[in-house]
Amino acid sequence: MRTLRNFLTAAAVAIVMSSAVASPALAHHSFGHYDMEKMSEIEGTIHKYEWTNPHCWLFVDVAVADGKTVTYGFELQSVGEMLRRGWKKTSVKFGDKIKVKFRPMRDGTPAGLMMSAEKDGKLVGVELPGAAPAPLR
Q1: What single string gives the DSSP state of each residue in 78-110?
Q2: What is the pLDDT of residues 63-77, one digit of tens each?
Q3: What CATH number was assigned to the domain covering residues 40-122?
Q4: How far is the C-alpha of 79 from the C-alpha of 87, rounded, in Å?
């Protein structure tokens, strides 16, 4: 009986430990909500730039019909990855004019996965892999 209880205790500890180790991996999302077959492009003015982990974010105000503005939110990579791609905390700032190429949201919301950005006609950092147009089908 004692051996069975020891075995069950060890099994319970193993399950708890393995789920604790797996949780961070499960918490990191997939890119399933982005349409990776499409590429979109907008031009606008930077509303906000968040230089933070686990992902940096860029928010861009885009003028639409009737003089209204829509704010697009773009997910970027982590701070470390952005540094490797030539970005800095000071690469862009509020009020800068910017052109963004991105993989749009599948549900049509004004957001996406940023693939590249141009400021003053120059590429900021380097394009992310997969920024080339999707192959035609």
Answers
A1: -HHHHHHTT--TTSS-TT-EEEEEEEEBTT--S
A2: 998 889 999 999 999
A3: 2.40.50.140
A4: 9
